[in-house]
Amino acid sequence: MSDKVYGEYPTYYKQPIRWARYHAHTKPHFFWSVLLGLSAPVLLLATPLRRKYLYADHEPIPNVYPLPTRQRDQNLTGYDDE
């Protein structure tokens, strides 16, 4: 019985697709972390293209409640729910 998990170890420069598939099966955590790391520059370039062709950024959420632009009512006493 063989101790191999997924066939013989392929050589990168001779069979790069088989080499990537081998590592996707035997070490998926390394494979996906490298794949996500290599996709970061693509995502950085895609953001300006998204803003130009697809949709713009959303309006920022307000941090405070908007105050009215009128004079304050001087006759108020207590709370409004009384």
UniProtKB/TrEMBL annotation:
<dbReference type="InterPro" id="IPR039961">
    <property type="entry name" value="Nuo9.5"/>
</dbReference>
<keyword id="KW-0812">Transmembrane</keyword>
<keyword id="KW-0472">Membrane</keyword>
<keyword id="KW-1133">Transmembrane helix</keyword>
<feature type="transmembrane region" description="Helical">
    <location>
        <begin position="29"/>
        <end position="46"/>
    </location>
</feature>
<protein>
    <recommendedName>
        <fullName>NADH-ubiquinone oxidoreductase 9.5 kDa subunit</fullName>
    </recommendedName>
</protein>
